[in-house]
Amino acid sequence: PDDLDRFQNLYKSLKKFFDFSDVEEFVIITPTDADGVRRIREITLEHQNLIKIISDSELLPALVSLPTTNWMTQQLLKLAVATIVRTEFYLVLDADLICFKPTSFTDLIVNGKAVTNMYNTPTQVHLEHWWTSTQKVLDLTMDSSMYFGVTPAILATKVVIGLHRHIEAVHHKPWDQFLLENVYNYTFTEFCLYAVFAIASGEFPKYHVARTNGVYNSERSMWFESEFDSIDVPHMVEYGHFYSGHFI
User: For residue range 126-144, what is the model confidence (pLDDT) as tens digits?
Assistant: First the structure.
């Protein structure tokens, strides 16, 4: 129920600020739960022609035989969804986000490239050892002083599919099976996997343009419970044009 309540708040903010005429399809991934699916359909009724609801086990069948933590499940689903995406890029959202100012395709895709939050050092929610471990998973070296941000993020569909194939070529088994089998052997994350592959393969500059707070405002986002009272969300919604980024 908590996630559904958060999703309802996200959807309200998208209805207020996001240009749905720019949306090809709105894919919602959820556990197999008839009541939850019914409620999602009720919440998103206004855009039912754009909504595609898919269960996590349908999108990532390996979860049935190789269940893992909720935290890891949601990461792998963000990579798995590329197999059904119909567009060159896709915007990854979590239920606990808020869109705080008018946002359209041209805000997020500039000259054919996805705006991407990048940082000079690992952020407080992206630890250094995640990057080093991910490079071992991929058998690649990321020669870069810039670090990819977190959700919300725009991923290039072809790059994600290339990542799948690379993992399979290195480890000789389906990409999702390998990652699920090695959740406790490596400390990788979905965005570390994506960024290391994109940068090491030379694909990153073809599909992305780096902005410190391009998609989300890192300084105004709430990463920990202790920060909840320090962010004035209503003020950001009312005066969004004064703030960089589009989501918190």
Answer: 577 888 899 999 999 987 6
- What is the distance between the alpha carbons of residues 210 and 92, in angstroms, rounded to a whole number? 17
Query: What is the per-residue pLDDT across 88-113, written as a single tens digit (0 to 9) for each?
Result: 999 999 999 999 999 999 999 999 99
Tokens 């035989």 map to which residue?
A: 65
Whole-number Å distance between alpha carbons of 177 and 112:
33
Per the listing, tokens 């039912």 go with: 48
Distances (CA, A) of 104 to 1, 20, 204, 237: 29, 8, 22, 16
Rounded CA separation 230/156 (Å): 34
- Pick from 50, 7, 45, 3: nearest CA to 26: 50
Structure tokens at 65: 């035989």
Taking the model in full, what pTM does it have? 0.91
| DSSP result, the chain | -HHHHHHHHHHHHHHHHB-GGG-S-EEEEE-S-HHHHHHHHHHTGGGTTTEEEEEHHHH-THHHHS---HHHHHHHHHHHGGGT--SSEEEE--TT--B-S-B-HHHHEETTEEEEEEESS--TTS-HHHHHHHHHHHT-----S-EE--SSEEEEHHHHHHHHHHHHHHHSS-HHHHHHHTTTT----HHHHHHHHHHHTT-HHHHEEEETTSSB-TTTS--SGGGGGG--HHHHHHTGGGSSSSB-
Residue 154 bridge partners (DSSP): 91
Virtual torsion, Cα 117, 112, 157, 29, nearest 10 deg = 60
